Amino acid sequence: AQSVTQLGSHVSVSEGALVLLRCNYSSSVPPYLFWYVQYPNQGLQLLLKYTSAATLVKGINGFEAEFKKSETSFHLTKPSAHMSDAAEYFCAVSDPNNDMRFGAGTRLTVKP
Amino acid sequence: DTGVSQDPRHKITKRGQNVTFRCDPISEHNRLYWYRQTLGQGPEFLTYFQNEAQLEKSRLLSDRFSAERPKGSFSTLEIQRTEQGDSAMYLCASSLSGASGNTIYFGEGSWLTVV
User: Fold this and answer.
1) How far apart are CA B107 and CA A99, in angstroms?
2) Between the CA atoms of A78, A80, A82 and A88, what dihedral angle is there, to the nearest 10 degrees?
3) Given this model, what pLDDT does residue B72 score?
4) Cα distance from B108 to chain A (closest Cα, Å)?
5) What is the pLDDT along chain A (112 residues), one digit of tens a residue?
6) To the nearest whole number, what is the mean pLDDT of chain A?
7) How far is B45 from chain A, CA to nearest CA, in Å?
8) Which of B30, B106, B113 to mutate to probe the A interface, most A CBs <10 Å?
9) What is the mean pLDDT of chain B?
10) Reduced 3-state DSSP string for B34-80
């Protein structure tokens, strides 16, 4: 069975500071990994995905994530936080059949 | 590409009533998923269809829940005899099968409040 664990349910950063949201996965097959963002009262929007090509994946809004097999991690980063980045972020893992499982989410707060 | 659309966006119902949600996937997508999300949690898988066939159902999907996708296009999720614990956001998503790692696209969700 595949799963993801997001470390830290809440992360707070100052505007302009580095954003680091942590995600570790467990999968018995080579995983496909995703980060989604959710703004209040909205659905989930794909930020980026890893599908066994380049290990460093660039997404929308300046976010990127690096797949590290040795650490079973897929952490999300952004060099400089913006107020508009405040949202809930979900890491997800899927198998080749698109059976997707989500982490519990990390709420990002950006302080002015 | 009009995206995944869900209706209604919000529903308030009394305990014991039946409710139905509709989902229209992205037109060329053959897979359709239902998830449930409660406050502070990630989406939990409920069920998915490939075309009109319901291929997997979570144990979370009790016998009060039924999902259909009769013509392989839109889908409905019905909850019978609603309970307060059913209050959640119900998310629909769709994808195109045939290639691994296909992106699953989500709708805006349907909020259910059972009073």
Assistant:
1) 17
2) 30
3) 85
4) 4
5) 789 999 999 999 999 999 999 999 998 778 899 999 999 878 899 999 998 778 899 999 999 999 999 999 999 999 999 999 999 999 999 877 667 889 999 999 999 9
6) 92
7) 7
8) B106
9) 91
10) EEEECCCCCCEEEEEEECCEEEEECCCCCCCEEEECCCCCCEEEEEC
Confidence of residue B61 (pLDDT cuts 50, 70, 90): confident
CB–CB of A45 and B106 under 8 A? yes
Strand partners for A25: A4
CB-based contact A32 B101, cutoff 8 Å: yes
pLDDT higher than 70, residue B98: no
Chosen from B45, B103, B108 to mutate, greatest number of chain A CBs within 10 A = B103
Which residue from B100, B103, B108 is facing A43, i.e. has the nearest CB?
A: B108
Give the nearest chain B residue to A43 (CA atoms).
B108
CA distance A96 to chain B (A): 5
Distance CA B109, CA B93 (A): 9
Residue type, B102: N
pLDDT at position B59, please? 84
Q: Please, are residues B22 and B6 in contact by the beta-carbon 8 Å criterion?
A: yes
Residue of B nearest to A9 (CA): B40
Distance (Å, whole) CA A71 – CA B24: 39
